[in-house]
Amino acid sequence: MKTASVIFISLSAAAVLITLSASGKISFAQVKPSAANAETCITSQCHAGIDKQKFVHGPVAAGKCKVCHGESPGHNENPAAYIFKTVIDISNICFECHKKFPARKFAHYPVQADGCTDCHSPHGSPYKFQLLYKGGDLCFQCHDEAIVEGKFIHGPAAVGGCVACHDPHTADYAMNLKAEGPELCFMCHTDKAENIKQAQFVHKPVAEKCTKCHNPHSASKQFMLASTAPVLCYGCHTDKKEQISTEAVKHGAVETERSCLNCHDPHNSNIARILLMDPMDVCMSCHDREYKLPGGTVLMNMKKWLADNKDQHGPIRQKDCSGCHNPHGSENFRILRKPYPPAFYEPFSVENYALCFSCHEKTIVLNPETEKLTNFRNGNDNLHFRHVNKQVKGRTCRACHETHASNFPKHIRKSVTFGEWELLLNFQKTETGGSCTPGCHKLQKYDRINKEITQ
Ligand code: HEC
Ligand code: HEC
Ligand code: HEC
Ligand code: HEC
Ligand code: HEC
Ligand code: HEC
Ligand code: HEC
Ligand code: HEC
Ligand code: HEC
Ligand code: HEC
Ligand code: HEC
Ligand code: HEC
Ligand code: HEC
Questions:
Q1: Which of 136, 378, 394, 395 could form a disulfide with 387 if both were Cys (CB 3.0 to 4.6 A apart)?
Q2: How confident is the model over 141-153, as pLDDT tens digits?
Q3: C-alpha dist (Å) from residue 53 to 9, 98, 115, 125
Q4: Among 6, 114, 133, which residue has the most ligand 1 atoms within 8 Å of its CB, making it the best to mutate?
């Protein structure tokens, strides 16, 4: 890095040199300077071409060699002699004519080390600013080129536009950067800047530093990412990694190709949790068709179901699918947040229905007799208790209720799958009770005021 101090030594100059070092001062008595030649060092014999580069330094173009090389008496007559002044303390010479770099917090090492000519020719070069090499090649004289050898290379780095981001001399920001955090990237990515600044929700690392995910130079994955979702995301969201890798029931959405990005924007959104769309629309972007599970079960087309069944369950009216399902996967059947029995029959326990009872009163199934806890009663005979609260063949809620939506009151189902059989319920509601004629038993009525005695 140290500035080259040019020392021209030729064998024929030895005598002169000895004289120089012995006396300690410059004396060239035997050679007389020619006044005519002293004006310029550029002649057809001498230094021809020094001013013929595409980019010639100002003082060279003006023939002012002396401003840097000093007086060199005798050099013109005897160029082989060591009379060429060593140029030391280069930056001071440069700054005699050039404005000093503004005082900033960071200075590139070669600039601190007086190495102007590590990068600039003092005379001229084929490249702008008399640079010794073009674009990135200049930097790669000292830095490892591997930074741009990833499969996906950032536009400006690929074309050697290093100084678009790095000041080659001094800078206010570490790594000699021209700006800090996202602002560096916003210098060029103005559309992203606008989106992010206007967004209601910005992913925290995006607000802090784009390079937390993107390599500014190159990387093995598209968009200069070191990895793709979900691995990229797990780098910080270790709790999600832990949860998703250990849970029993996986969600296809996380397991399929874009994984997290099926639902989340990596940068920003106007929807909470940086979702791509309104929460329910996110779900419907896939559940607008049937899915076949590995066991052969076919999951219904939920979008069509909701369109065909107008009486929707409370949380669905609030468009909150995640109130019941964990979109990332779960320990429970159907990625439910809380337990809910998977079959038609289930021995009763309150915990088995934790899902329903996280919003509804569990008392509806606890007391054999009630005057008010549930409307599903015949006189005071609690029919919820009667059907559900059994150690053998307790009926699960699904025996009678649709979870998502139905065309019958109280989300009673039109029919229920019982083995291979699709049982119709034929539910009829009245002011004070109701009736059904399911495949399970003959017509049964209940009436809260005038207890039916058909049962
Ligand atoms: C802005 C300062 C500056 C000016 C003006 C300048 N030189 Fe140099 N010159 C240097 C420095 C510094 C070196 C040492 C080489 C290096 O560090 O790259 C040098 C080196 C040289 C060398 C050694 C060979 C080489 O090219 O490196 C020659 C010959 C030379 N200069 C001739 C000239 C001539 C002739 C002129 C006038 C036309 C001139 N210089 C003007 C700074 C200057
Ligand atoms: C005697 C005064 C003088 C000295 C000393 C000097 N320069 Fe210059 N330099 C100039 C002039 C004059 C120009 C031409 C400016 C222009 O064209 O606008 C110039 C141009 C440049 C340019 C191109 C700038 C541009 O905007 O195109 C660079 C780079 C440069 N000098 C670097 C150096 C370096 C490095 C040194 C020290 C080794 C140095 N200069 C020493 C006078 C000097
Ligand atoms: C690491 C390489 C490097 C070193 C060392 C370096 N420069 Fe530069 N310099 C550059 C590059 C690259 C540019 C062109 C910047 C651009 O394109 O914006 C430049 C531009 C310039 C310019 C013209 C544009 C401007 O910023 O005014 C001057 C003058 C200059 N340098 C002077 C110097 C001086 C004086 C030194 C030593 C104190 C020095 N440089 C050291 C790489 C270097
Ligand atoms: C003459 C050798 C040389 C050249 C040419 C050079 N650098 Fe450097 N650069 C260094 C050295 C030495 C360091 C400090 C050592 C280190 O931290 O790796 C450094 C450090 C850096 C740093 C890290 C700064 C920090 O704070 O740690 C960046 C960024 C950088 N250089 C970018 C560039 C760019 C961009 C170019 C081309 C315009 C360039 N360098 C050209 C020698 C050079
Ligand atoms: C889009 C802006 C941008 C461009 C263009 C760019 N860099 Fe960088 N560079 C950065 C940022 C940001 C960092 C700091 C990375 C970090 O903090 O992890 C950096 C760091 C560096 C470092 C030091 C750390 C390291 O990764 O080794 C060097 C050296 C470097 N850049 C050289 C270059 C060179 C050479 C080029 C041109 C081929 C270049 N940069 C182009 C933004 C850029
Ligand atoms: C000097 C201007 C400039 C700066 C600064 C800059 N970029 Fe870029 N970026 C570009 C250009 C040019 C492209 C190529 C555009 C294209 O291919 O459509 C690009 C492409 C990208 C791409 C790939 C886009 C695509 O659709 O393939 C990403 C990702 C990216 N930049 C991220 C960043 C990040 C992160 C930063 C800040 C560290 C940054 N950029 C800073 C100019 C810049
Ligand atoms: C949390 C990680 C992360 C952070 C932080 C991040 N990005 Fe991205 N970025 C990504 C991912 C992942 C993609 C790929 C998106 C895809 O495949 O649809 C991407 C894609 C891009 C693209 C190309 C596609 C597009 O969306 O236009 C650009 C440009 C981009 N990012 C710029 C930025 C900028 C600028 C910042 C900082 C303000 C930033 N990124 C911060 C993860 C991130
Ligand atoms: C560099 C670390 C980092 C990476 C990589 C990262 N995140 Fe984050 N993410 C965070 C931090 C920090 C928060 C804020 C956490 C908090 O506030 O508690 C966050 C929050 C979130 C949130 C909640 C946002 C909200 O508004 O509550 C979501 C969703 C998210 N990240 C998804 C992702 C996805 C998807 C990826 C992969 C594309 C990803 N993250 C990659 C650090 C990261
Ligand atoms: C099927 C769509 C979907 C997929 C795929 C998905 N998420 Fe989410 N994510 C959501 C929804 C919806 C929420 C909001 C849930 C809520 O409010 O309880 C959320 C919330 C989050 C949160 C913030 C709240 C929390 O639970 O901590 C983080 C962080 C998060 N997701 C990260 C991820 C990561 C990482 C991935 C990939 C492994 C991912 N998500 C995949 C839909 C999804
Ligand atoms: C990217 C597409 C996609 C999105 C978005 C999506 N899903 Fe899924 N979902 C699937 C696939 C594929 C399956 C079936 C494969 C599997 O889970 O193994 C599935 C299965 C399910 C299952 C049954 C899980 C089981 O194995 O029993 C439920 C429940 C579910 N999704 C709910 C949701 C909810 C709620 C949302 C919105 C937060 C959502 N899905 C968003 C693709 C998606
Ligand atoms: C009140 C809680 C709750 C809400 C809200 C909810 N679900 Fe469900 N979901 C369930 C339960 C319980 C099951 C299991 C039903 C069964 O097997 O009887 C289920 C099953 C599913 C299935 C599998 C269906 C099948 O054919 O087996 C999908 C797909 C699904 N839900 C998607 C959604 C989507 C999309 C939303 C939002 C529109 C949503 N769920 C809202 C509780 C809920
Ligand atoms: C996230 C909260 C939540 C969960 C979990 C939940 N529900 Fe609901 N449920 C509601 C809301 C809210 C209503 C609407 C109440 C209203 O309109 O007054 C409702 C209404 C009902 C109704 C109709 C009540 C009426 O008077 O019209 C039935 C039946 C029902 N839920 C059954 C269930 C079953 C069965 C489960 C378990 C699979 C369940 N719910 C899980 C919130 C929930
Ligand atoms: C044998 C059929 C059947 C089963 C099994 C069943 N319900 Fe009901 N449920 C009904 C009927 C019928 C009504 C409507 C009563 C009325 O309003 O006349 C009802 C009404 C409700 C209501 C509205 C409030 C009320 O009690 O009147 C809720 C909430 C409810 N059921 C939740 C559940 C839950 C949770 C389960 C499972 C633990 C369940 N039901 C099991 C038939 C059933």
A1: 395
A2: 999 999 999 999 9
A3: 26, 21, 22, 5
A4: 6
Q: pLDDT tens digit string along 62-98?
A: 988 888 887 777 776 776 654 445 566 888 889 999 9
Instruction: Write out residues with Cβ below 6 Å of ligand 6.
Output: 154-156, 161, 164-165, 184-185, 187-189, 210-211, 214, 216, 223-224
The confidence band for 42, taking pLDDT boundaries of 50, 70 and 90, is confident
Residues 455, 450: Cα–Cα separation, whole Å: 13
Question: d(Cα 116, Cα 126) in Å, to the nearest integer?
Answer: 17
Chain mean pLDDT for the chain: 88
CA dihedral 259, 260, 265, 266 (to 10 degrees): -100
Cis bond leading into 230, ω under 30°?
A: yes
Band (23; pLDDT cuts 50, 70, 90): very low
Which among 265, 248, 404 is positioned nearest to 326, based on CA atoms?
248
> Of 301, 274, 252, nearest to 404 (Cα)?
301
- Residue 15: what pLDDT? 25
Counting Cα atoms < 13 Å in the Cβ hemisphere of 203 gives 20
Residue identifier of the C-alpha nearest atom 24 of ligand 1: 6
329 lines ligand 9 (CB under 6 A): no
pLDDT of residue 80: 61
Ligand nearest to the CA of 273: 8
Q: Give the position, in ligand 2's atom list, of the atom nearest the Cα of 93.
A: 5
> What's the full length of the chain, in residues?
455
pLDDT at 9 (0 to 100) = 28
Report the nearest-CA residue for atom 37 of ligand 13. 397
C-alpha of residue 39 to centroid of ligand 4, in Å: 39
**C-alpha–C-alpha distance, residues 185 and 201, integer Å:** 19
Residue nearest to atom 2 of ligand 9 (CA): 263
